[in-house]
Structures are given as structure tokens and as C-alpha cells.
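COMPLEX REQUEST
Ligand: zinc ion
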Amino acid sequence: MSSEPSSQRGPESVHERLNPTIPALVHSGWLGHFPWLVQGTTTRGSGSPEFDLGLFSGASPGHRVHEHWDRLLARTEMACSVHARQLHEADVRLHRAVKKGLTIADPCDGHVTDTPGVLLAVATADCVPIFVVSPEPRAVAVLHAGWRGTVAGVLERGLDVLGDELGRSRSDLHLHLGPAICGHCYEVGSEVFEALGLPSPGAPTPIDLRQILVQRAVTVGVSLEHITVSTHCTRCTDSGLFSHRGGDGARQLGYMGIRA
Ligand SMILES: [Zn+2]
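STATUS: Structure written out below.
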């Protein structure tokens, strides 16, 4: 979708804009290109209490978190939403017939749908929300990837569900790696490098998980020109995001769906 020359060496960087009606950072390039798409990553918001959407993290009273979910669904004008407890593994579920309101699916780390009006959501606070769009025929996937999920293959599994169950070709897919902890802030031990199949640095060293996910996506057939990476970091950019490493118990949501 990018107008950048295809000879560029890396994926396009995207600085998501704050949505005027929902406290969320949205990929305005995508929303311009795919006007049928609903997409974003929520933020703390400017009010009090903060816009915590973590149903399983226990940082805010449950009734308040549910109020925030209701607000998100109303503002996005979507009838249904799907979420699940996340396991840092690689299960990804396809959702087609979804009841109105919020559905909690069996635990998993990714969701796929081709049904309009269904808002898919993963919770993050440093991990990477991965957004995948199939333009025509329309389908979307939202995946949750920390280093464990990346090692387990949640990205590849999400692309498999789009391919095997919905017949979407990887070369047609568009992929965005949303707001997450950046390659300067995410210091990890040797065991993480080793688990990812990278040379062990021998001491805690920062790693750029989004860059690793870009490489994995290209390896399995996603076009580099179709991949974008957020400039927002949950730690070092002033983006209003929750950060687990920064001491937050609350969670933002990476959400996406096909407008009804
Ligand atoms: Zn950072």
C-alpha cells in the first residue's frame, strides 16, 4: 500500500495518530487505504480513571474495565467484540458467528475473522500487537506477541489460519506491528536470544522484537512493502501507553475489525 519505493531496505515506519473520539492510536494510512477497517491501539487517555481495558490483569475494578469495553464498542460502532485470556503461546482462533456484546473465547493469543461487525482485541503492555489485513476478500487478524509467543510461532500460526481456513494468500496480506516496547528499551537475557535462534550476547542486551517479527513475516512470504512498524514505544516515547516493565498493571488493547 505504501508509495515508498520498493527498493527501501526496511519496513515503513508509521507514527499512529491519536483518534479524536476514542483514546487510541490509529494507523491513519491504513484507515485511508482501507476505509472499511476499524483499527487502533488504546492509550491511557487524558481522563481519570485511566482507560484500562485489562480484563484479566486485575489492576482496575471489573465493572470499570467493562465500562471501558462498552465505550470502545460504542465509539467504534461495532456490534460484537472478541477477546481471550492470553498465554504467550501460539493458538489463534477463527471467529465467524459471534453474539452481540463481548465474547470471551477460550484462552489464546490471536483472533481472526472475515465477519463484518466483529471487533477482535488483544491486550498488551510492552508486547507487540500484530495487525494483519487481507484487503479482498476482506479478513483481519489481531495477534499478541511477546518473545515467548514469537518463539512459539504465533505470527506464523495467524497467517496459517488466514491461509488454511480462509484461503488468503500471504503475498496479499498487509501487516502492521503496533505500539510496543522498542529495541532500545527491551533488554533481555541470553536465554531470549537463544530461544529466538540468535547468537547469545552473553549479558543482558536490548532486542528489537518488532524487527524480528518483520524478518519472520518476510521469511514466510509477506511482502516487505506491505509491512509497517509503529514508532511508538511503551517506555520511551510520550505516547500514553501502559508498560508492564514501567510498573503498570493496566492494559491497552490492540483492536481491529471489518466495519459492519
Ligand atoms: Zn523505547
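REMARKS: Residues 182, 184-185, 233, 235-236 surround zinc ion (CB under 6 Å). The chain is about 20% helix and 25% strand.
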